[in-house]
């Protein structure tokens, strides 16, 4: 009898060592979970086992895929939650059915075996992160419970070794986390300069606008973009065919009116009726002379000449040639290349409080590594639609040093007043939240 009992104990101990070896040799959490709910049947003879991690069933005996809404799964998770709420989840031992509610007891009788053993899985701090629900028809004797306790420590160690490590910030002590949180709040309160980005263009300062002096068709553009011109240089020539015809017609009408006046003057000495018409014919002559003068003025306006020296600022001469224009339509601008300013289009959504004299930094698209300094001079109070179709405020800034070439474009950074870093980071989200919620 002693030899037989010794042989049984040796066999059970060998099976126990085999379970520990299989746990240490598991290639991953899935394989370890399978071993935990299946391999111990030979030694402990349980009918079924369930592995719970963080309150959720991860593996079941003889089941390859766990159905989250299965009745048995729901029962085991509810029972484990009850043990956790009762404060006994960290203690290994037989589960007392009276601890469960009536519904859980009914599910136990219909879904599980008569006796259940709860084997908790503890981390290095002694906190429960999971457990094994083992159920069979006979109660677990003290020897089996001792082996299960040892096996539970092996399973917990293996699971922690195979599972993903917690982020370093979660492993920090609470005091260090509080210090880091306090420092972060202090950093968020540090005042920083607000700044916004806006598209910008170098434009002439106090340039002379050249507009169409009459309604007509442009026949020829005699200058090129950025060409230097002097006072009196011919810039644009309109199609003068109609204007010349109007001058010719006006000259002939004036000649007819003068002839009628001369004839009536000669007959006035003998004809009272002719004498009475002299005033009317004289007024008609003055009318025709005024019409001729006006036609000649229009003909003279068909050629536009430079009224000041500078460079011709416009986009493309081909775009204007042959195009009908109306009186007052802008054709170009004459500007001094040494006098330029910066024009910005600040979108409404990016607008911040800006004061005259605010610092502006321009980075040209053609030279993004070179910074051009400027100072804000004017800011529009009303937003207008830009060429891109969005509302923007117009800002004008003067350069601190020699300005870049007129017509260059880039991105300008405008600096505003100082504000806490948290406001600088959350200004746009807060504005969007207020617009969305109407607060």
From TrEMBL:
UniProtKB keywords: Coiled coil
Record protein name field: Efflux RND transporter periplasmic adaptor subunit
Organism from which the protein derives: Pseudomonas soli
Gene3D superfamilies in the cross-refs: 2.40.30.170, 2.40.50.100, Helix hairpin bin (1.10.287.470)
Claim: Coiled coil is one of the keywords in the record: yes
Main location (coarse class): other
Spans traversing the lipid bilayer: none
Record GO cellular component, one term: cell envelope
Coiled-coil parts of chain: 240-267
Subcellular location: Cell envelope
Entry keyword Coiled coil: yes
PANTHER family (UniProt xref): BLL5650 PROTEIN, EFFLUX SYSTEM COMPONENT YKNX-RELATED
Record-linked InterPro entries: UPF0194_transport
């Amino acid at each position: 009898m002693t030899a037989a009992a010794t042989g049984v104990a040796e066999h059970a101990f060998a099976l126990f060592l085999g379970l520990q070896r299989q746990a240490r040799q598991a290639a991953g959490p899935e394989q370890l979970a399978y071993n935990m709910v299946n391999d111990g049947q030979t030694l402990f003879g349980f009918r079924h086992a369930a592995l719970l991690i963080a309150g959720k069933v991860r593996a079941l005996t003889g089941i390859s895929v766990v159905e989250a809404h299965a009745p048995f799964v729901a029962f085991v998770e509810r029972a484990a939650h009850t043990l956790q709420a009762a404060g006994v989840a960290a203690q290994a031992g037989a589960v007392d059915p009276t601890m469960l509610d009536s519904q859980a007891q009914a599910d136990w009788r219909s879904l599980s075996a008569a006796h259940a053993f709860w084997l908790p899985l503890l981390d290095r701090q002694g906190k429960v992160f999971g457990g094994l629900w083992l159920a069979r028809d006979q109660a677990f004797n003290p020897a089996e419970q001792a082996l299960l306790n040892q096996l539970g420590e092996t399973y917990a160690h293996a699971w922690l070794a195979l599972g993903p490590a917690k982020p370093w910030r979660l492993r920090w002590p609470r005091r260090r986390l509080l210090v880091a949180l306090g420092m972060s709040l202090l950093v968020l309160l540090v005042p920083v300069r607000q700044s916004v980005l806006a598209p910008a263009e170098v434009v002439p300062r106090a340039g002379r606008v050249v507009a169409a002096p009459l309604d007509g068709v442009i026949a020829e553009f005699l200058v090129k973009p950025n060409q230097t011109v002097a006072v009196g240089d011919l810039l644009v020539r309109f199609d003068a065919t109609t204007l010349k015809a109007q001058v010719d017609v006006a000259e002939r009408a004036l000649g007819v009116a003068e002839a009628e006046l001369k004839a009536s003057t000669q007959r006035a000495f003998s004809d009272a009726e002719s004498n009475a018409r002299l005033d009317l014919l004289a007024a008609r002559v003055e009318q025709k002379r005024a019409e001729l003068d006006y036609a000649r003025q229009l003909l003279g306006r068909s050629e536009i000449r430079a009224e000041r020296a500078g460079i011709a600022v416009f986009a493309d001469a081909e775009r204007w040639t042959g195009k009908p224009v109306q009186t007052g339509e802008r054709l170009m601008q004459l500007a001094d290349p040494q006098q330029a300013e910066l024009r910005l289009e600040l979108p409404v959504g990016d607008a911040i409080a800006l004061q005259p004299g605010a610092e502006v930094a321009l980075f040209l698209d053609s030279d993004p590594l070179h910074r051009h300094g400027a100072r804000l001079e004017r800011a529009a109070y009303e937003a207008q639609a830009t060429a891109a179709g969005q509302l923007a405020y117009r800002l004008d800034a003067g350069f601190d040093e020699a300005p870049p070439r007129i017509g260059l474009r880039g991105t300008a950074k405008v600096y505003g007043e100082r504000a806490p870093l948290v406001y600088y980071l959350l200004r746009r989200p807060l504005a969007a939240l207020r617009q969305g919620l109407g607060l």
